[in-house]
Fold:
Amino acid sequence: MEIHQLRYFVAVAELENFTRAAQQCHVTQPSLSQQIAKLERQLGTRLLDRLGRTVVLTDSGKELLPRARRILKEVDSAESWFQQPEGPPASSLKLGALPTIAPFLLPRVISHFRDELPQVALTIVEDYTDHLLDRLLKGTLDVAVMALPIDDPRFEVEPLFREGLLVALPPNHPLADKPTLTFNQVRQEPFVLLHEVHCLGEQILGFCRQQEFQPRVVCESAQISTIQEMIRLGLGISLLPEMAIDTADDSIVYRPIRKLQPYRTIVATWNRHRTSTPPQARLLDILRQEETID
Structure:
């Protein structure tokens, strides 16, 4: 039993005429008649009685007609759902982000996304790099906002923007009045750094090692907000990402490192073997525009 056979059958039953049914279905009458006959053979029963130019339903035809109408209605509904100009709607989207990115970047992105797609249920997951990648592979996340490096061919990785890592220090620090700093100027300073469990913490230590500089770490934390509070208390200085700067807060000053400015590259990552949805595509567009979002 095929969909077009049911469509032909319903047309004949409703119009009570093979010629008019063939015209409505845009096929020749012999072709329509052949398909009806094939349907009857498959079901093992007569569905229509031909009485001259008139067609009437048999008892079997009367039983099939409401069922065929329901089937065709569901088929037409499914086709309409998938043929929308923007594609089939997705009811949910799961977005992951690193803890050193989520509180600074995602509020603006989420606000923009909800303004455009309020009907999509957006779930946010904040986690470390390895855990986010594992969730992407298992399909429990659709997209993750992370930082390079990500060296795994199972993922699509799209760079979004690059941000500098700045020296953060209290405003009364002797180096605070300098517009730029060098590594030599901070070599002897106590540092408050992110724990190496964060990829950013590992990247900062790696950059220091490249400069043959081992920071004197007096405190490690898993939260940027904790590090900022330690800086305010004068316990040390740090290297923090630009997105962590609060322009309304003058209790911490941020200074670039001259010539050898460290940075990280923020990327959008997703499983290359999963099918993208329209909400996911729109989210990626919003992330690409992040630097212009107010």
In short: The CA atoms of residues 92 and 121 lie 4 Å apart.
